[in-house]
Specification:
Bound molecules: flavin-adenine dinucleotide
CATH class of the largest domain: Alpha Beta
Order of helices and strands: EHEEHEHEEEEHEEEEHEEEHHH
Number of helices: 8
Largest sheet: 5 strands, antiparallel
Strand content: 25-35%
Distance between the termini: 40 Å
Shape: elongated
CATH topology of the largest domain: Thiol Ester Dehydrase, Chain A
Oligomer: single chain
Structural class: alpha+beta
Helix content: 10-25%
């Protein structure tokens, strides 16, 4: 049996009245569910012959994605007229099959079965049909949720924005200045730092060096429960606009978008070797690039322009550490792992509060280093958005 090329629909349908839209990273969504047969499909959808266009749901995850199949046979009623002597499934019915798949995902996710509520098909953008679907085809239907509240930001622009604002407030930013040690008072408190440009004294010192937190903690004489991993990113040669959204595949572990300059910006999961090497390992390159090629076959011929790795700081409960260290006068901000960019403003704010007032900010109170001694770990790794 011929398999018709995979078809994608991103579900943007309006939800019937329900408390809220499901979210990509909902912690209560369970992983892949059992297939759904046609008897159950008929309970979920009001559609009937000749308009029920799904034979089986092969796999699905609540709030995330669903795959279904439609066996297209010569007995389909629409082939009588579309077209006599040249049977081709109408494109609008392929879209309808996708819409029915999306409706099942919505109904199962929101537990609407039996409620009498209908899911309506509201709009579709940029549909294209690459191959004719003929009798004998097995139509693969793939649908997924859009995270409507999602957005992207240019990290370098954001960082320079903060740097300029800090500078305007009188903050000195000294670039290319490596911290090589800590200045201690006779009582052992930290009262400054030794740098490659000389000594800087201060009543209190805040440390926010991410993947190098353990190295600097070692200089100060204590150990941290931080593991440092490389996390790679890749940029391709510039292309004409080809991708106008961010695609994140949890199934294959990659994300991809296109920058304003035309390069494809690609990433994946952590290198699973703890390391300070900022170039990353070849197996991860193979896996991430392979996932891109699998999902976007035309990108197979695109050449990578550059890749590099940042060193990220991972703690056992995948949540940040904000607050005091065992050494008086030295404060710490680390543990942001792969998700610190979006969260570091509040990390900086709450650390500044602690340094200025001597007490943890109420928001940051649970995030003290002390929790690894007391065992009061933070059980919200999924909510923190740190993907490890
Ligand atoms: C490839 C990649 C993709 C990522 N994607 C995302 C994403 O999509 N969304 C998201 O939210 N987060 C993402 N992150 C994670 C995010 O970048 C980090 O969590 C965030 O940058 C941490 O901020 P920070 O200020 O704690 O540390 P950093 O931004 O790492 O800054 C630490 C600084 O300390 C400096 N330093 C280290 N040692 C010393 C020393 N001895 N002396 C002086 N300075 C020193 C370093 O040079 C560095 O400038 C990604 C990370 C990587 C590597």
């Amino acid at each position: 049996m011929q398999r018709a090329s995979s078809t994608w629909m991103i579900w943007r349908g309006m939800l019937p009245t329900k408390t809220r839209e499901p979210r990509m990273n909902d912690s209560n969504t369970s992983p892949e569910q059992a297939p759904i047969d046609v008897r159950r499909i008929a309970q979920l959808l009001p559609h009937r012959f000749p308009f029920l266009l799904i034979d089986r749901v092969t796999a699905w995850e609540p709030g995330k994605r669903l795959t279904a199949i439609k066996n297209v046979t010569y007995n389909e009623p629409f082939f009588q007229g579309h077209f006599p002597g040249r049977p081709i499934m109408p494109g609008v019915l392929i879209i309808e099959a996708l819409a029915q798949s999306a409706a099942i995902l919505a109904i199962e996710t929101l537990e609407l079965a039996g409620s009498g509520k209908l899911v309506y098909f509201m709009s579709i953008d940029e549909a294209k049909f690459r191959n004719p679907v003929e009798p004998g085809c097995l139509l693969d239907l793939h649908v997924g949720f859009v995270q409507k509240r999602a957005g992207t930001a240019r990290h370098d622009a954001v960082v320079w924005g903060y740097a300029r604002a800090a500078s305007a407030l009188g903050v000195d930013i000294v670039e290319g200045c490596e911290v090589k040690g800590f200045v201690r008072s006779p009582s052992g408190s930290v009262v400054g730092i030794e740098t490659s440009m000389g000594r800087i004294v201060a009543d209190k010192v805040g440390m926010a060096v991410a993947g190098h937190s353990s190295v600097l903690a070692g200089m100060a004489g204590f150990r941290l429960p931080v593991t440092s991993y490389a996390l790679q990113a890749f940029v391709s040669e510039p292309l004409k606009p080809a991708l106008d959204t961010v695609v994140l595949s949890l199934a294959t572990g990659m994300y991809i978008s296109q920058s304003d300059k035309g390069g494809l910006v690609i990433g994946g999961g952590l290198d699973r070797y703890s390391s300070y090497a900022q170039r990353g390992n070849a197996p991860v390159i193979r896996d991430v690039v392979g996932s891109v090629a699998e999902q976007f076959p035309p990108f197979r011929r695109v050449r990578l322009l550059r890749h590099w790795a940042g060193i990220v700081d991972v703690v056992p409960d995948s949540s940040p550490v904000i607050g005091e260290t065992p050494v008086p006068g030295l404060y710490l901000n680390c543990g942001w792992g792969t998700g610190g960019f979006k969260a570091i403003p509040v990390g900086g704010w709450t650390l500044a509060h602690h340094i200025a007032t001597g007490t943890p900010h109420p928001v940051a109170r649970p995030f003290q280093l002390e929790r690894f001694k007391t065992g009061a770990l933070i059980d919200e790794a999924a909510a923190s958005g740190i993907a490890h």
